[in-house]
Amino acid sequence: MSRALFVGDKEYFPGIGQIHYEGPDSDNPLSFKAYDPDRIVAGRTMEEHLRFAVCYWHTFCADGADPFGPGTRIHPWRVSDDKMENARSKMDAAFEFFTKLNVPFYCFHDRDMAPEGASVAESEFNLETMVALARERQEATGMKLLWGTANLFSHPRFMNGGATNPNFAVVTHAGAQVKAALDATVALGGQNYVFWGGREGYACLFNTDTKKELDHLGRFLTMARDYGRSIGFEGTFLIEPKPMEPMYHQYDVDSQTVIGFLRQHGLDEDFKLNIEANHATLAGHSSAHDLQMAVDAGMLGSVDANRGNPQNGWDTDQFPMDMYDCVQNMMVILAAGGLGSGGFNFDAKIRRESTDLEDLFLGHIGGMDAYARALVIADRVVSDGKIEEMKAARYASFKQPDGRRFETGGMGLAELRDMAASSPEPELESGKQERVENLLNDYMFS
Ligand code: XUL
Ligand code: CO
Questions:
Q1: Per-residue confidence at 1, pLDDT binned at 50, 70, 90?
Q2: What are 367-387's pLDDT values in tens digits?
Q3: Around ion ligand 2, which residues have CB less than 5 A away?
Q4: Whose CA is nearest to atom 10 of ligand 1?
Q5: Which ranges of 102-209 does DSSP label H, i.e. alpha helix?
Q6: How far apart are the C-alpha atoms of 260 and 116, rounded to whole Å?
Q7: Residue 240 C-alpha to ligand 2 middle, in angstroms?
Q8: What is the pLDDT of residue 230?
């Protein structure tokens, strides 16, 4: 059954139809060259593997404004001075975009979808009103919600943080927003709920009680978990690590920091990680590293797919297109058995200088094709098994009886010492880094 590509009498992206797979030989920029939703790779369709999501904030809210100048893009869904009327037209534009792009999922912050009101109750009412409309649109289009979240960083009251704010009165507002955003996520059948630290961090150690703030964060997340479960949220709670921006120090620095925090607070059964490529690079890691750390802990939840700019450390949120990064990320994800209830959310924005409405499509098409290509290449790497075999061979000594005994706790430090003393100097064993890197190029380009 073919579905209407937009609702009502206004089409926000005229002249653009549904984007289809046309293959690598097509010269139509508004087509997929690699992303073929029904193509089977490693036993699943591309759509099932990649579970692409469009984010509301960069795509429909951000107009290109930066600290040096105002927005450059005109949003045709800004139709009046009435904020709720704009929220409705924005939603129509959003669902038209989702349908035309042919993605299965979307993600939103409460404030992306519904404007803040003059009171907590009015903000809740605004969100409930928009959620009711989103539900209708989801039913009409088949779109699903990958995750919802609350914006605890834009309003001036959150300048010193939300859950970690030194002022309890602000913490209550953070609680009110997260409660409403959880209600919204459940009402929309959201498969996950995300906490990104926002301003959960600090600027100056002299005026900050870090222990207290981190304890408050643990308490707050526990309350959110308990509330979510009490209203029937069965999905995964996700924390999205980021080391800085906007705060000088953010508490959720990287995968390993967050994993330790979740375990310390007994939250590791309900929470996993949402790894954003550009956040990992801000932390001085590759995104594949942060993904691997999450996989090793059994806590990989979802991905915010984007990239930074290699020339600076900022969170530039560009669309992914660096194939080495995409392939390395997909290798980790595929070897781990996939993303489960997570997906690839494009937390990415087109550049300030990209001012055509069509550019929103081009950015997403490029990102989707990049990860579709990466999936095919990663499948080649993983199913061939050569790189994995080389990795395993480096640890072969732990398959021998003494190595096994060391791993399983059957040995003390003194015995370890005696073995060193009674054995010849270990032979140098090459890590063969160049060999595996060359192999990766072979998989990518031959
Ligand atoms: C900010 C960021 C957020 C989260 C959701 O850097 O990544 O958009 O993904 O709050
Ligand atoms: Co993000």
A1: very low
A2: 999 999 999 999 999 999 999
A3: 276, 304, 347
A4: 196
A5: 110-113, 120-141, 168-187
A6: 34
A7: 7
A8: 98
Encoded amino acid at 307, one letter? R
User: Relative to the CA of 196, which ligand 1 atom is closest?
Assistant: 10
**pLDDT tens digits, 190-211:** 999 999 999 999 999 999 999 9
Cα of 242 vs its chain's centroid, Å? 11
Q: Which CATH class is domain 40-383?
A: alpha beta
Q: Measured between alpha carbons, how far is 3 from 9 in angstroms, rounded to an integer?
A: 15
Give the position of tokens 């653009």: 16
Model pLDDT for residues 61-116, shown as the tens digit of each residue? 999 999 999 999 999 999 999 999 999 999 999 999 999 999 999 999 999 999 99
Q: Is the shortest distance between the CB of 347 and ligand 1 below 6 Å?
A: yes
Q: Which atom of ligand 1 is nearest to the CA of 274?
A: 9
CA of 245 to the centre of ligand 1 (A): 10
- Mean pLDDT value across residues 332-352: 98
Determine contact, residues 204/268, Cβ cutoff 8 Å. no
Which residues, other chains included, contact 408 with Cβ-Cβ below 8 Å and sequence gap of 6+? none
Closest by CA to 14, choosing from 85, 90, 100, is 100
Confidence of residue 136 (pLDDT cuts 50, 70, 90): very high
Query: What is the arithmetic mean of pLDDT over 144-150?
Result: 99
* Domain ranges for the chain: 40-383, 387-445
pTM of the complete model beyond 0.85:
yes
DSSP 3-state assignment of 103? coil
Q: How many CB atoms lie within 10 A of CB 55?
A: 27
Among residues 446, 348, 376, 381, the alpha carbon closest in space to that of 36 is found at 376
Atom from ligand 1 closest to the CA of residue 57: 8
Query: Ligand 1, residues 304, 314, 315, 316: which to mutate, most atoms within 8 A of Cβ?
Result: 304
Instruction: Using most ligand atoms within 8 A of CB, pick from 177, 192, 276, 290 the residue to mutate for ligand 1.
Output: 276
Positions marked catalytic = 109, 112
The answer to whether the CB of 197 falls within 8 A of the CB of 244 is no
Residue nearest to atom 5 of ligand 1 (CA): 196
Torsion over CA: 276, 277, 283, 288 (sign)? positive
